Amino acid sequence: MISLGCSRHHAFSLQSIKALQIIKRSTLVFNILLILGVTAVIFFAKQVNPSEDVTPLITLGGLALFAASIIAIFLAVLEKLLKEAIELQKDQELTI
Questions:
Q1: What is the reported pLDDT for 94?
Q2: 68-95: per-residue pLDDT in tens?
Q3: What's the rounded Cα separation, in Å, for the pair 92 and 46?
Q4: Nearest to 16 by CA among 67, 68, 84, 69
Q5: H or E element, residue 20
Q6: How many CB atoms lie within 10 A of CB 82?
Q7: Collapsing DSSP states into helix, strand and coil, what is residue 48?
Q8: Residue 79 C-alpha from the chain's centroid
Q9: What is the 3-class SS of 51-78, one letter each residue?
């Protein structure tokens, strides 16, 4: 959706903001599911083999969570900047 808007010279539109919001919400849902999944895997690994070392699972889960969080933060900042750019564009269209 965003790439289509950029190729049609409509990057500063409400559709772009909606697309960013959808992607941001998706990354937040991914974070929640990742936390639940890693927790479940650690729980089951400990039940099957109590001497199992779960440090790699925690590390990989933490890295994936960190990456997804960075993406969500970047999208939130980009969404805010895009909203301000749209407001500035509307103001410029109204000026003579």
A1: 76
A2: 999 989 999 998 998 898 888 888 877 7
A3: 61
A4: 84
A5: helix 14-48
A6: 19
A7: helix
A8: 11
A9: CCCCHHHHHHHHHHHHHHHHHHHHHHHH
Rounded CA-CA distance 19/1 in Å is: 6
Q: Write the CA distances from 41 to 36, 60, 62, integer angstroms.
A: 9, 12, 14
| Stated pTM of the model | 0.73
Reduced to 3 states, what is the DSSP secondary structure of residue 1? coil
Which segments of the chain have a pLDDT < 70?
1-10, 96
CA triple 48-50-51, angle to 5 deg: 120
| Angle, vertex CA 11, rays to CA 9 and CA 14, nearest 5 | 125
Q: Using only C-alpha atoms, what is the Rg of the chain?
A: 20
CA distance 71 to 79: 12
Structure tokens at 27: 């990354």
